[in-house]
Amino acid sequence: MVAALRRAVVRAVRAPSVHNTQPWRFVLGASTLRVEQDRSRQLRVLDPAGRQLALSCGCALFNARVSLAADGFSPVVRCFPSGQQGPVVAVLDLGGEPAPDADRADLAALEPYLERRQTNRRRFDDTPVPAGVTARLVAAARAEGADLMQVLAEEHRQAVAVLSQRADALQNANPAYRAEIRAWTSTDPGRSDGVPALAVPHVDGTAQDDIPIRDFDTAGKGWLPADTRSSRSQCLLLLGTDADQPRAWLSAGQALERILLEITRAGYAASPLTQVVEVASTRIALRTELSLTMQPHVLLRVGRAGVTPGTPRRLLDDVLEEKPNP
Ligand SMILES: Cc1cc2nc3c(=O)[nH]c(=O)nc-3n(C[C@H](O)[C@H](O)[C@H](O)COP(=O)(O)O)c2cc1C
Questions:
Q1: How does the average pLDDT of the chain come out, rounded?
Q2: Mean of pLDDT values over 196-218
Q3: Structural domains for the chain
Q4: CA of 326 to the centre of ligand 1 (A)
Q5: Residue 99 has pLDDT above 80, yes or no
Q6: Is the CB of residue 196 less than 8 Å from the CB of residue 312?
């Protein structure tokens, strides 16, 4: 049992996280795994409310669930057992009665994709994403209590593009935002967190993106080609939930990772573009212009692209505490 829980942590840390902050900690008991948010890694400028932090922890929690399902377990999962402001985002418990495991086979089937999933900021080719694939992604979001909407109408695509540009420009005009992004990008191959130059496009002013990829190329060393062609005609998906508080963000994070793993399984690539939801004024305008009833959390672009270099992770010793008799 402890071996399966330890393996779940190994898989959990492969999750995506905003700026690769990896804002999580894990406490391993004899039959439980506690997932905690690490507020010392919160992005104070980009993410003052902790939405992206909770989304990132939700992604890690989902990976842990997939790993345990693949090992034959159906843990009882208690989210925010000591309230939504506390450090503990979830406890996975293998000790008591197993949870009903109708979903176990579906979760276990995603296990081979935990290592293959990556955020891909390359140019996507023009192959459309078939409706059958997007329908599977919508179902994946639903299974985690979230909503996924494909942005289809031309006026909605136009609104997403204009608002994303506005959000990106507002953020980049803020020196504190630029300082924060500089602190979380790196050309140091020995660094175990942050976004490495190898995984981002070179920014030289030639990109014709009408939905801007976030400018992580703070040192002018972005290794991927500058031409990312992130346009409003690509497959755009918007993930949201009914509510807008930490519990909903945690569900949205689990839904995000479930969708990303399904995208990987289908042979497609994806990258989150969250500037438009990070800036309060553009998030509000997005809800109005797309007549959204849900609270939007993540915009995703999906398409086909070659693999990109991987991103680093912190050592297990830095994130995992073992307490066999807590
Ligand atoms: C909540 C959340 C928001 C993110 N927002 C963006 C974004 O706006 N732009 C971007 O290029 N990547 C974004 N990412 C991707 C992270 O930068 C990426 O997960 C991290 O660098 C680790 O790389 P990997 O996903 O390839 O493992 C986001 C990821 C998460 C979980």
A1: 95
A2: 90
A3: 2-116+314-322 (3.40.109.30), 131-303 (3.40.109.10)
A4: 34
A5: no
A6: yes
How much distance in Å is there from the Cα of 98 to the middle of ligand 1? 33
Q: What's the DSSP call for residue 215?
A: -
State the pLDDT at residue 100: 76
DSSP letter at 23 equals -
Other beta carbons within 10 Å of 202:
17
**CA atoms of 25 and 43, how far apart (whole Å):** 16
pLDDT tens for each residue of 163-181: 999 999 999 999 999 999 9
pTM as predicted: 0.98
Comparing C-alpha atoms, which of 163, 140, 129, 89 is closest to residue 233? 129
* Percentage, residues of the chain above pLDDT 70: 99
Q: Which of 119, 124, 213 to mutate to test the pocket of ligand 1 (most atoms within 8 A of CB)?
A: 119
Using CA atoms, how far apart are residues 15 and 12, in angstroms rounded to an integer? 6
For 167-206, the DSSP string reads: HHHHHHT-HHHHHHHHHTEE--TT--SSEEGGGSB--SS-
Q: Report CA Rg, the chain.
A: 19
C-alpha distances (whole Å) from 262 to each of 16, 28, 147, 164, 279 are 14, 28, 15, 25, 28
Contacting residues for 265 by C-beta, under 8 A, at least 6 apart: 109, 110, 112, 113
Say how many C-beta atoms besides its own lie within 10 A of residue 92's C-beta.
23
Q: What percent of the chain has pLDDT over 90?
A: 90
Which residues have C-beta atoms less than 6 Å from ligand 1? 16-20, 52, 55-56, 59, 118-119, 121, 195, 213-214, 271-275, 311
Q: Say yes or no to pLDDT of 326 above 70.
A: no
Closest CA to 96 of 175, 31, 35: 31
The one-character DSSP state at 324 is S
Structure tokens at 247: 């519990």
- The pLDDT of residue 325 is 66
